[in-house]
Specification:
With 380 residues, the chain is mainly beta. It contains two helices and 26 strands. The longest helix has 8 residues, at 222-229. The chain is globular and about 65 Å long.
């Protein structure tokens, strides 16, 4: 390669893979975005369910009961599923349901012999008599194949507000209401993967494998469903355009997940799941996925490590290890209020909050922002 002092990425066109190590001596200037991907895959694991009573249990949270107390609110659920023999399986992917206890039935996202289905219950009168639902008209899941399934609901309390998707294509379905459905009721039923809480009969347990489950607090558009399907590859959900609407993201065995209590990590909200009754993490090479993002520079010059779209000048996603000092320079004014669920740390020079030399922290959680002193310089 001839020596260049400057490389215009748009002119060179990096469409070819370089299959050997490359050494560059001297300065290298790249104009435009730069993305470096690791060889490590995002998804290498899955969770296995035996079809008897295996389940992952996540503690009850208000965010998983999509109602404001007066009416329903929109939500969506995404999952990767594998069924060895669809003719022999009839169980839930994700549920918040206990059919044996009054007012404990909320919803079930499942399949029946390869036909994807979703049921939402108004359990004020009985466990399952009042519901809206969507049931696929034909099987869209096939034997021994990974499929991506999504349900979206617009919160309208109408059956027509439910949409089903398989591998990014909207599934033709019959939508209807039975009994009188008013709205979903917020119960204490836990969220479960692979079975309902009661696992009472064969149509309430799932057999085979599941990976990467995501819960959104919005109705995903068709384009957003296509985006998360990602041409049949598990994606880094942190890079999805609707990531701000992700309530919870369970990688189902990957990353920091373990077999122990609360070992199935929720990588967004911290509502971890527990493998129960023999559900187990297994190696999975048959499900394609993106590579991990190593680092990315945006058009504005921001650097993202572990993600493609950095929100700040330096944006790191994942565990961070520093060897050496972290230097904070005094600020002449307080930083802006952090967004919900985040915090910011700074060193005061005494003009804003805190005295000169104090290390401060500002936290926003539950709609409330508070500022506290981490280190009182004058007292230390």
């Amino acid at each position: 390669m001839s020596r260049r002092n400057k490389i215009d990425v748009e002119q060179v066109g990096w469409n070819e893979q370089i299959g050997e190590n490359v050494s560059i001596s001297g300065s290298l200037t790249l104009e435009g975005k730069t993305l470096v991907e690791a060889e490590e895959k995002i998804n290498k694991k899955a969770i296995s369910f035996d079809g008897t009573n295996d389940v992952v249990v996540v503690s009850d949270q208000d965010a998983y009961s999509p109602t404001n107390g007066s009416t329903d609110t929109a939500f969506s659920i995404s999952a990767w599923v594998y069924v060895g023999d669809v003719s022999e399986d009839n169980g839930p992917f994700v549920a918040k349901s206990n059919n044996t206890i009054s007012v404990r039935n909320e919803y079930i996202f499942k399949h029946s012999n390869g036909e994807v289905q979703f049921f939402i219950y108004d359990s004020t009168l009985n466990a399952n008599g009042n519901q809206i639902r969507a049931q696929a008209n034909a099987a869209t899941l096939s034997d021994s194949t990974w499929h991506h399934v999504v349900v979206t609901y617009d919160g309208s309390t109408n059956a027509s507000g439910i949409k089903l998707y398989t591998d990014a294509s909207q599934t033709a379905a019959t939508n209807n209401e039975t009994g009188t459905y008013v709205r979903l009721r917020n119960s204490s039923t836990p969220l479960t993967f692979g079975a309902t809480e009661d696992a009472g009969n064969a149509n309430r347990v799932f057999e085979d494998r599941m990976a990467d489950v995501v819960f959104f607090d919005k109705e995903l558009s068709s384009a957003e469903v296509t985006e998360i399907y990602n041409s049949g590859k598990v994606m880094n959900v942190r890079n999805h355009s609707a990531f701000a609407n992700v309530v919870s993201w369970w990688k189902m065995g990957d990353d920091q997940d373990t077999d122990g209590s609360s070992g199935i990590i929720d990588y967004v909200s911290g509502h971890h799941g527990t493998l129960t009754n023999g559900a187990s993490i297994i190696d999975e090479s048959g499900l394609s996925s993106d590579n991990l993002d190593s680092f990315n520079t945006s058009a504005s010059g921001s650097l993202g490590i572990g993600l493609k779209i950095p929100d700040e000048t330096l944006h790191v996603y994942g565990n961070t290890k520093l060897e050496g000092p972290l230097i904070l320079r005094e600020r002449t004014y307080d930083p802006s209020t952090p967004e919900e669920g985040t915090s910011v740390i700074w060193m005061s020079n005494g003009n804003g909050t805190g005295d000169d030399g104090d290390i401060m922290i500002k936290i926003t959680a539950g709609g409330v922002t508070k500022t506290a002193t981490l280190v009182d310089f004058s007292a230390s």
